[in-house]
Amino acid sequence: MIAMQLLNTTILQLILLILSRTSASFSMKAPSSTSSYLADVPLGAPDPILSIIDRFKACPSPDKVNISIGAYRDENGKPWILPCVRAAERLMLDSPTETKEYINIAGDPSYVNLALKFAYGEKEMDVLGAKLAAVQTLSGTGSLRIGGEFLARFSKAGQKSIYIPNPTWGNHMAVFAEAGMDVKRYRYYNPKTNRLDMDGMVEDLRNAPEGSVVLFHACAHNPTGCDPTHDEWKILSDLCKEKGLRVFFDNAYQGFASGDSEADAYALRFFVEEGHGGLMLAQSFAKNFGLYGERVGTLSVLTGGDEERERVLSQLKLIVRPMYSSPPIHGSSIVRTVLSSEELRKQYYGECKQMSMRINSMRTILVEKLKEAGSTHDWSHITSQIGMFAYTGLSGDMCDKLTSEHFIFLTRNGRVSLAGLTEANIEYVAKAIHAVTDGKSITAE
Ligand SMILES: Cc1ncc(COP(=O)(O)O)c(C=O)c1O
After folding, report:
1. Active-site positions?
2. Judgement on whether residues 76 and 87 belong to the same structural domain of the protein
3. Ligand 1 near 70 CB (within 6 A)
4. How far is the centre of ligand 1, averaged over its atoms, from the C-alpha of 230 (Å)?
């Protein structure tokens, strides 16, 4: 018996010895990156917007304010999960039909259909349904990228140019360039007047070669907060038709411009009515549903009908499959649950309006506080702009000073994410803006 116990102990010690040797030899054999190809990988530049968040987190000042990122914050400066989204999640949790199975390549057809109705209009979809080739995507960025890949593959020779506004959302350039498009800019904003540069825009689009693609922000232009009026959209629509320009709408803020997602769909629906064949739409539910990290979007292409729709859809699926196989389902199920319930949908409209109104009130208060701080500049562009941002006209140096001297974090183009302002910090921000602009011109660079 004792001999058996001794033998067992010896075997155990032997196993432990072998294990410790093996793990020691693993660490000894770990490759040194300097001797591998990784040694030649250059350090990539940090993302200009997302890196601000890291610097904000690292800043020890109790006064610090983050007005850089385009994400809604409530009146206490906290992220807000829409109550209708929470209600939908509760319903989903108890529903026997919600699973964690793979969805097909093009996504959840019920979600896609509801998303399209949200953008193109409920009634309009009776006619458009059979013409829209659409896939569920990874939010707005994913839909722009799939759209860019599609355009790069199927645009005729010499027609791979895409015109994006100057200025525009910082990622547009990279998304389309990486997709293989030839990215060009058109004038959009006049820094001298702090208003839309309609003449510049028309001139640049008139000079664009036939068959080029034009990217428009469907509403609440980022970063300028300036949208064309209905009359100006008509001019742009006529011009695109006359010049044979293909139209791509980026619809990332539906509901944030006016607080009413139906009114915000005006430009898209008008262009569809005007018969812009091949029109493309990238849709995101990040901002208007507060589903930033859920990555919910769609890409749709307006085709001539059944047969063309089938061909286009088949190609969109061929782009998606080797990229990420199929989209995630949690966020799209939330949107589907909200939009398919009369009660939750009504609640949603109210909550979207609530976000938009809080942001709008920050515009007015910011301008009031700037005046109270003693600023004599004309800040009226801030209150006439719409959407999530104020494009202040502050120069890069002024923005740097706001960060280094006042711990206010924003992008260097002078864009203020109004959702980052609250009643508690707005006076501090206004005084700081006055301090860095006093006696200096405030036209954007
Ligand atoms: C104009 C515009 N398009 C698209 C996006 C993409 O957003 P997401 O990929 O989070 O839906 C953004 C995000 O800020 C944006 O401002």
Report:
1. 169, 250, 287
2. no
3. yes
4. 23
